[in-house]
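User: For a teaching handout, I'd like to show students what a predicted protein-ligand complex looks like in token form. I'll give you the sequence and the SMILES for zinc ion. Please answer with just the structure.
Assistant: Understood, here is the input followed by the structure.
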Amino acid sequence: MYFGSKRFFKNLILLCVIVLIAVPSVFAFRYKTISEQERQYIELLEAEAQMQEAGQLSADSVAQNSFVPEHPSYQDLYPDFYAPQPLCAQERIENTIYLTFDDGPSERTDEILKILEDKDVKATFFVIGQSDEADLQRMRDIVAAGHTIGMHSYTHNYTQIYSSVEAYLEDMYRIFVQIRETTGETPTVFRFPGGSINTYNHAIYRELIAEMLRRGFVPCDWNLSGGDATGTPVSAVEIVRSVVGPAANVTRGFVLMHDAQVKKTTVEALGTVIDQLREMGFTFEQLTPQTMPVLYGYRG
Ligand SMILES: [Zn+2]
């Protein structure tokens, strides 16, 4: 007889031991596989169920707990501050140079326009706010010559414009309106003073870029620089060297230069810059909303 035998009781004890050890182990393992987040969620559901049973959870408090996306109030500012069309598909054209001139217009604009015309090159001007009629006329000249006019800033005052998203939008709306009213052209491309990510805007650059993109505007940084931003004048030879040398390493070059009364050497360098880049096999284009722009990555 197996039942009641010594062997039967031995096996019974063994079975009890297995059940006592294995079952809690499986439960422990199962419990461990539930993440902290899931456990909190389950606890929340249980708490809600208990509250509903007790009649404590009204329809209102359920609605309050539901997820509602945040809507920053600055999105409501300047309802006509939008690009003529939403962001569109952008294309990369290889072996292309985009010449860009920041901070104008100025007395140098006339000379720059003349050289561009002589060389049959279209470029982009990121302009700042003007009060002088001669400079407003230069904005019209840029557009009349078929170049792209883009927004840079109205005041170009870094500490002011980057103090908040609202301050930035206020400044950009001013230059947007000035370009539109002066030239009849609605600007779409823009350049952040100091580049899209800089020491003044690092705390809010994500919001700034996102808000401008939401409004259909296209930001563009640069990957080649004339090195003419500094207060101390740079020679024309140095400007040519700093653009043309590194151009060998890019297939699309976005060249930063400056349009200001003091930037005489930039004008002196421009013809040679164009000639040498052309010899390297580049063609020249102006920026449009369809251009895939270059934007800085965040380097920590
Ligand atoms: Zn600038």
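For the handout, you might add this sentence: Residues 102-103, 152, 156, 193 surround zinc ion (CB under 6 Å).
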